[in-house]
Amino acid sequence: MTATSTELARKLSAAVEKMPAFPKSVQRVLEITRDINCQPKELVMVIEKDPVMTMKLLRILNSAYYSFPTPITSVNQSVVYLGINTIKNMALSFAAVGVLPPTNAAGFDIQRYLMHSLTTASLARMLCQKFGADDTDPTDCYIAGLLHDFGKVVFAQFMPVEFKEALAMSEEQATSLHAAEQKVIGADHSLVGAMLVEKWQFPKLLTETIRHHHGAILPGNTLQSCLFMADQISKKLSMGNSGNLVVEELPPALVNRFGGDMDDIIAQLGDLTGMVNEAQSFTKGSKELMA
Predict the structure, then answer these.
(1) Which of 110, 141, 140, 111 is nearest to 123 (CA)?
(2) What would you report as the CA-atom Rg of the chain, rounded to the nearest whole angstrom?
(3) Of 208, 203, 196, 202, which is closest to residue 157 (Cα–Cα)?
(4) CB-hemisphere CA count at 13 Å for 77?
(5) Domains and CATH numbers, the chain
(6) What integer pLDDT is reported at residue 217 of this predicted model?
(7) How many helical (H) and strand (E) elements, i.e. helices and strands, does the chain have?
(8) pLDDT band at 133 (very low <50, low <70, confident <90, very high)
(9) Residue range 216-254, pLDDT digits in tens
(10) Mean pLDDT in the chain?
């Protein structure tokens, strides 16, 4: 390893170490809900032990988007109304929002980033449910979509000058952001995102999927395939903006894997309005959640 690469590795590691920890309560939620026979009361008990998560959950559920006939006043009610999977995904989203900085010196738009992450997460889960041919858990696809671009947040927060230059280069030259990051910083957000997810003690498969989400796509890897497709669909349909507007062409192997091009896949997913509206509602409320 050269002196330059050693110094870069040190800077990246230092930046990742400055990021907040991922809440242990959310890791516990994921652990419980991986058991298909888990009881709602187990989930309720974990959430109720985290007063911040409980507050955020009730705040969102009592927002104008849901408009329940009567106020939701307990975690147990929320599980009854929305089900275990929805509450689990909300807990994940709260955790992601909780470690997002409200502002940054790079001028990176956190709200638009969050919108892209949420829609990519939901699309990845939908793709897994519809096209998954193995035992890949759709929740893992949701997590991959939610966290795949978190390396950009690390750059924006702790390497703002370089990241701002990469964002400008990507826009001016109409090139992908990860290519611009390589030129300006010497590493891209997928590497830093993988380092962060590893720090947060997520499984190796998720870490490697995030590390390679701009690399060679393996069609047999459902997690990687669904993440790549979801990322491109979110960009193609302008669902938020994570600093990269370049929609990458689908490799022939992925066209075969999903049985059509991107337009075909979008058509098969059906009406996405509800998903987009839910993500928009969550994004609008995220400023309060960050408080």
Answers:
(1) 141
(2) 19
(3) 196
(4) 12
(5) 21-99 (no CATH), 118-283 (1.10.3210.10)
(6) 82
(7) 17, 0
(8) confident
(9) 887 789 999 999 999 999 999 999 999 998 999 999 999
(10) 92
Provide DSSP, the chain.
--HHHHHHHHHHHHHHHTSPPPPHHHHHHHHHHTSTT--HHHHHHHHHT-HHHHHHHHHHHTSTTT--SS---SHHHHHHHH-HHHHHHHHHHHHHHHTS-S--TT---HHHHHHHHHHHHHHHHHHHHHH--SS--HHHHHHHHHHTTHHHHHHHHHSHHHHHHHHHHHHHHT--HHHHHHHHTSS-HHHHHHHHHHHTT--HHHHHHHHTTTS---TT-HHHHHHHHHHHHHHHTT-S--S--PPPPPPHHHHHHHTS-HHHHHHHH---HHHHHHHHHHHHHHHHHH-
Owner of token pair 């907040």: 20
pLDDT for 148-201, tens place per residue?
A: 999 999 999 999 999 999 999 999 999 999 999 999 999 999 999 999 999 999
The DSSP 8-state label assigned to residue 243 in this structure reads S
Sign of the CA dihedral with 87 first, then 89, 92, and 96 last:
negative
